[in-house]
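S1.2 Input.
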Amino acid sequence: MRVIAGEHKGRQLKPVPNRLTRPTTDKVKEALFHVIGPFFEGGQALDLFAGSGGLGIEGLSRGMERCVFVDKQPKAIQTIYANLKELKLEERAEVFRTDAFRALKAAGKRGLIFDYIFLDPPYKKVSYSSLMESILEHELLADGGLIICEHDPDEQLPDQVGTLTLKKQDVYGGSIGIGIYK
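S1.3 Output.
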């Protein structure tokens, strides 16, 4: 695993040392960022179910201003901290060890608004609709913001969730699906 582009292009990222986390491959990460925007001029991101923090770190490397990383597994949190420290990105990040729905509620109470929300939960264990409904309920998505869902390729994401519409859905390498909502 590495950073694909931007300020930290080519830098290696540590993976989470367990089998509970499924890292996003470099090829999928590259394809995903080509779709949502190769580079950014600021913006806030939320990396929910962050694992090693690869998606949020890629966004920071490409110019996002800040990223909030959330995962409930202690080893994932340790790995995120280690990766952020290695790349000297600690001051542009917040890291929380908690359940995704609690994190969304807490972000809403803080009045946080995100331009990009990455959802990469364990496949077939969490409802994407429920996550997106919670994001809408807590008013976490900026006007024009995107929700990027990584999912099992056999799973069909809903076309509509509240005011969100599925804009694009593709399968990469036969093993990972990506859905983008706006």
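S1.4 Remarks. The domain at 26-181 is CATH 3.40.50.150 (Rossmann fold).
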